Amino acid sequence: MKKAIFMSFMALLFSMSITSCREQTEKERVMEEMKDEGATVKEKRDGDETKIKMETENKEVKIKEEDGETKIKEKTENDDN
Fold first, then answer.
1. Would 39 disulfide with which of 1, 34, 52, 69, CB 3.0-4.6 Å?
2. What is the DSSP pairing of strand 69-76 with strand 40-46?
3. CA atoms of 31 and 26, how far apart (whole Å)
């Protein structure tokens, strides 16, 4: 009986550790990075299309999601137009 309880407990811990270590998508990583830098965030939704614009003093990021496809554009102050 102790062995069954122990095995169940270990299986629960193992499954929790796997689900808590999921990888971030590129969008999540960029959004977290910009929020940490204190960016202003503007979000616009139009039907199934979402546009997110984040700005700091030296960096601008635009994220566009449409039909399950995500496009990310990053522009720094040093980039040439």
1. 34
2. unpaired
3. 9
State both tokens at 68.
């399950």
Indicate the domain borders of the chain.
25-81
At which residue do the structure tokens 């990021």 appear? 61
Would the pLDDT of 71 be above 80?
Answer: yes
Residue that has been written with the tokens 């960096």 in this structure: 59
- 24-51 pLDDT, tens digit per residue, is 688 888 888 888 888 899 999 988 899 9
User: Measured between alpha carbons, how far is 52 from 41 in angstroms, rounded to an integer?
Assistant: 7
Q: Where are the alpha helices (H) located in the chain, listed in sequence order?
A: 2-20, 26-36
Main-chain phi, psi angles of 55, to 5 degrees = -135, 140
Length of the chain: 81
